[in-house]
Design goal:
The protein has 226 residues and is an all-alpha fold. It has a domain of 157 residues: Tetracycline Repressor, domain 2. The chain is built from 9 helices and no strands. Helix 1 packs across helix 4, helix 2 crosses helix 3 and helix 7 packs across helix 8. It starts with 13 loop residues before the first helix and ends with a helix.
Length: 226
């Protein structure tokens, strides 16, 4: 994250954390109601119940509040996915994907207005480095979950598969929020995303099997020719 959007100071005590939390909550509320351009630092201070001087003590400007808030919401979403990835017993790839898709879609659509506003703001204030860092974290969660699946083919690269699977999920859900005039219902979107990811996973599994057979045939030919 670049220096323009860094907070002035990190909260160390519980009271300070409560203050920054109230500031972020106020920002999101105003963002949804008015849009980014019409939200001022004075507005945020008023809704958060803090003095304007206190607000500037923690944040140099609105972009800084926006950046910290977006990051905070992304971290919470990552925690939800991490919880969904946990299982008392090994799961198949299909079960793993279904659990994580459901968790991801339910949370985003459960706060659709907030996420829609935050995603638009993210495109405005996030640096490429910050965006990549957060995106890699989500991909890492999917990679670890897939790697723990009971039926992961040895030839299937968990990292590549996770990146592509999350890219599909992220694209469908984000565009449903940002582009469509009427966002689909939660269960409808879950089914759409599951269908898209399942199709990719099946193709990737079939490709892994074919690649494995090809490698075996090449090894056999090498043995014969030697």
């Amino acid at each position: 994250m670049n220096s323009i959007v860094k907070p002035r100071r990190r909260p160390l005590q519980s009271r300070a954390w409560m203050t920054t939390g109230a500031i972020q909550d106020a920002f999101v509320l105003l963002l949804v109601e008015r849009g980014y351009e019409k939200v001022s630092m004075r507005d945020i201070a008023g809704v958060a119940g803090v003095g304007l001087g206190t607000l500037y003590l923690y944040f140099p400007g609105k972009d800084s509040i926006a950046a910290v808030t977006v990051r905070s919401w992304m971290r919470k979403q990552a925690a939800i996915l991490a919880q969904a990835a946990e299982a008392p017993a090994p799961r198949t790839i299909e079960q793993t994907i279904r659990a994580m898709v459901a968790a991801h879609v339910h949370d985003l659509l459960g706060h659709a207005d907030e996420w829609r506003a935050l995603l638009f703001v993210e495109r405005r204030i996030s640096s490429p480095e910050s965006y990549r860092e957060i995106y890699r974290e989500f991909v890492g969660l999917f990679r670890d979950a897939l790697a723990a699946s009971s039926d992961l083919p040895a030839a299937l690269d968990p990292r590549r598969t996770a990146f592509n699977a999350f890219a599909i999920i992220d694209a469908i859900v984000e565009q449903a929020l940002l582009v469509q005039d009427v966002c689909p219902g939660t269960e409808e979107l879950v089914r759409d995303v599951e269908c898209a990811v399942a199709g990719y996973i099946r193709a990737a599994q079939e490709g892994a099997v074919i690649s494995g057979r090809t490698a075996q045939n090449q090894q056999a030919r090498a043995v014969v020719s030697s």
